[in-house]
Amino acid sequence: MKQNNDIVRSKQQQIALVTGSSSGIGYETSLRLARNGIYTYASMRNLSKSGEILGYAIRDNIPLKTLRLDITDKESISGAIDKIIAEKNRIDIIVNNAGYSLLGPLEQLDIDEIKNEFETNFFGIIRLIQSALPIMRKQGYGRIINISSLAGRIGFPYHQPMLVLSLPWKGL
Ligand SMILES: NC(=O)c1ccc[n+]([C@@H]2O[C@H](COP(=O)([O-])OP(=O)(O)OC[C@H]3O[C@@H](n4cnc5c(N)ncnc54)[C@H](OP(=O)(O)O)[C@@H]3O)[C@@H](O)[C@H]2O)c1
Question: What CA–CA distance (Å, rounded) separates 122 from 120?
Fold first, then answer.
C-alpha cells in the first residue's frame, strides 16, 4: 500500500497490535513499541498471563493495554479488532508474532497436533491479515510485520513441518 505522508501519523498517534505478547519476542516487542510512544495492544490468548507486562506499563507509564486474542479463533480476532476500532478507530501496525515450533519425531506426532501448528503459524497469520487489511486500506496506511523463522526455509531435525509463514517483514 502506498504510504501517503499526510496520512502517516507521528509515533504518538499510531496504534499497534502485537500477537503472542505473553512471553518472548511478542512481550518484548510490545514493551518496545509502547516505550517508543506507540499505543500498543499487547494481545495474548490467555489474559491470566498479562500481570507482568501490565505491571511494567503502569510502572513506566507507557501506552500499553492488554487484549485477548487467539489467532486460531476467527471470532476472537474479530472481537479484538472491533475493540481496537471502537477505542481508537484505527490500526497502524500489526506484529504477527504468535506461533510455536512443534518438536518430535514425525511418526510419534498426532495429525491433529500438526494441523494445530498450521492453524497457528500459517492460517492464524492469514486470518489476522485478512481482518486488518480492509481497515488499513480505508485509513490509507498500514504496516504488517510477520515474525518468521529460519526453520521456514531450512529443515532441522525433529522440527516437524515448521511452516511459519515465510515472508520477510514489509510495509504494505
Ligand atoms: N525464539 C526464537 O529463537 C525463534 C526463532 C524463530 C522463530 N521464532 C518465532 O517467533 C515467534 C515468537 O517466538 P518466541 O520465541 O517469543 O516464543 P514464545 O515465548 O513461546 O512466545 C510465543 C507466543 O505465541 C503465543 N501463542 C501461541 N499460540 C497462540 C494462539 N493460538 N493465539 C495467540 N497466541 C498464541 C504464546 O502464547 P501462550 O503463552 O498462551 O502459549 C506466546 O505468547 C513465534 O512465531 C516463533 O515461531 C522464534
Answer: 6
Distance CA 39, CA 34 (A): 6
Q: What is the mean pLDDT of the chain?
A: 89
Closest ligand 1 atom to Cα of 121: 45
Euclidean distance between the first and the last CA atom of the chain, given in angstroms as a whole number: 4
Q: What is the DSSP letter of 4?
A: P
Closest Cα to residue 97, out of 156, 45, 158? 45
CB 16 within 8 A of CB 39: yes
Residues 38-82: tens digit of each pLDDT: 999 999 999 999 999 999 999 999 999 999 999 999 999 999 999
Distances (CA, A) of 168 to 62, 122, 128, 147, 171: 29, 14, 17, 8, 10
H-run or E-run covering 170: strand 170-171
Q: Whole-model pTM?
A: 0.91
Contact by Cβ (8 Å): 142, 172: yes
What lines the ligand 1 site, CB under 6 Å? 19-20, 22-26, 44-46, 49, 70-72, 97-101, 120, 124, 147, 149, 164
| DSSP 8-state code for residue 156 | -
Count, residues in the chain: 172
